[in-house]
Amino acid sequence: MTLLRYILIFGSLFLTFSLSAQSISELEARYKKASKYRDKMFIKYDLAKAYMKNDLSKAARHAQDAADIAYKMRDKNMQGKIALLDAKIHLKRRDDNKAEARFKSALSYAKDAKNNSVISESANGLAKLAYKDRDYKRAYEYLNDVIRVSGSSSSSSSSSSSSSSVDNSRVIKLENENVKLANEKNQVERENIRLKEQLAEIKGEKVDFSSARKALDKQKAEIQKERQRADQVEERLAEVAEAKEEAEARTKRREKRIEQMSEDVAKTELALKEAENEKLKAEKAKEQQNQMFTYGALGAAFLILLTLLRLWANRRAKKKLEEKNKQIEDERKRSDELLLNILPEPIAAELKENGKAKAQKYDSVSVLFTDFKNFSGISEKLSPEALVAELDHCFKAFDYIISQYPGIEKIKTIGDAYMCAIGLTNRRQMPNDLVKAAMEMQEFLADYKEDRRKKGLPFFEARIGIHTGPVVAGVVGFNKFAYDIWGDTVNIASRMESNCDPGKVNISESTYNQVRYKFTCNYRGKIAAKNKGMIDMYYVEKVL
């Protein structure tokens, strides 16, 4: 029975795949025969949907082709549908940022075309992404758009009613999330109360420490009293010594008298003298014993107190030392991160170890230059703050794009120009990732341009040029050192950029020879470059 079930499942999957392959083949055959732009647009749209099941890259490419045709035809309705399909493709590719941008474009086109179905699906997709980012307020606003659209069209179709009920459930889910957040807030408040109680305990410990200090002062006072008693004992001993001397003097006087007395009287006085001396010795021994006991007790108490104070001081010093060591380690990590932010890792390691870094020559490095069209004219239309903010927005996006490719190294920015390179290692690296990054930069700027154009604001358009060849790389400067590259390769890459149209990626022949099996390129012919003569140039069209 189990074997039969597996056979049926495998058969159904094989049948589905065969039908899908057959459908794609038929659509591609129809596309070759189609002559009208509208027919080509619909076929490309169907191909994108068909390829969603097994090849997301081809699906995205067909969706982009369909979007280009719809843009040329100014068909807002189809632009919205295609942007929605492209957003779903990017969701499957786990690219939430591009998916969000496509959903927003679909929502805008659908509102212009008054297509409630696309409006509902686009707003619903944006709500899901906002909910995933825990931006519940934005998710709630998008769901309200869905509810308004669903409410306005509920009388026209039962499917809209079903979509509204689903979105209402999402609103309820968001409300439940708000309750959950309120509970978490209460937990935080309870944690604050617990921390306040711990603070009170710490203050109580400070009070206990004050009490201990008072007890220590009291012990010191008692030790002082004992010292005074010892001084009194010493005075007493001095008095005893004086008494002894006086007794000895009396003894001498008595000896003289004994010589004058009879033998019996002398014996009697001698016995009395010995008894008195024994008594004095006993008293002196007792006083000495008491004195030694007192000094011993005071010494033991003082040693115990001194030991406790030393342990407390050592513990406190150890804690401070650990805190200082942790601060030093944190600062070291922070300095390392800052150093790696401006230098490649091997150069940073060499600089830390030797205090300097040797210049190195690399035989095959691909250099990318970008520059914004009419930057001076746009800068006159914007305030300095707004201009810097827009420039920062674009450069941050470029930084994020190249960070997705580990081999690409950012070199510097000069005004509105951005420079990066690949191949600055001891192993050979192809410029494929650099070309992909350049295409993603243009794709970002296209979305940025569309958004700014809708708002009636000026926008940036970039020229991008790439050339491959030998360079020399190294660190220059002393206080504010910088990592840079030099060579004719850098100059030719700059000429590639200056001879490029906005929105395009222009590459040299040396770069083309390394990427031609990965990208579709359009040969532009030999073009005159400043101070470089005639150079073969190519526009990169798309990824194969």
Tally of DSSP β-strands:
8
Helix content: over 70%
Low-confidence stretches: 6-19, 154-167
Question: How far is the N terminus from the C terminus?
Answer: 45 Å
What would you call the shape? Answer: elongated
CATH domain class of the domain at 359-543: Alpha Beta
What name does the CATH topology of the domain at 359-543 carry? Alpha-Beta Plaits
SSE succession: HHHHHHHHHHEHHEEHEEHEHEE
Q: Specify the number of helices.
A: 15
Largest β-sheet summary: 8 strands, mixed
Percent of sequence in beta strands: 5-15%
Give the integer mean of the pLDDT values: 81
CATH homologous superfamily label of the domain at 359-543: Nucleotide cyclase, GGDEF domain
* Rg calc: 46 Å
In CATH terms, what is the architecture of the domain at 359-543?
2-Layer Sandwich
Structural class: alpha+beta
Question: Can you describe what's shown?
Answer:
This protein has 544 residues and is α+β, with helices and mostly antiparallel strands. Among the domains are: 22-180, Tetratricopeptide repeat domain (Serine Threonine Protein Phosphatase 5, Tetratricopeptide repeat, Alpha Horseshoe), CATH 1.25.40; 359-543, Alpha-Beta Plaits. 73% of the residues lie in helices and 13% in strands. The chain has 15 helices and eight strands. The protein has helices spanning 2-33, 37-51, 56-73, 76-92, 96-113, 116-132, 136-152, 158-260, 263-342, 345-354, 375-381, 384-403, 432-454, 488-498, 509-515; strands at 360-372, 408-414, 417-422, 462-476, 482-486, 505-508, 519-529, 533-543. Strands 1, 2, 3, 4, 5, 6, 7 and 8 form an eight-stranded mixed β-sheet that branches. Strand 4 and strand 5 (482-486) form a beta hairpin. Helix 1 packs antiparallel against helix 2, helix 7 runs antiparallel to helix 8 and helix 12 runs antiparallel to helix 13 (432-454).
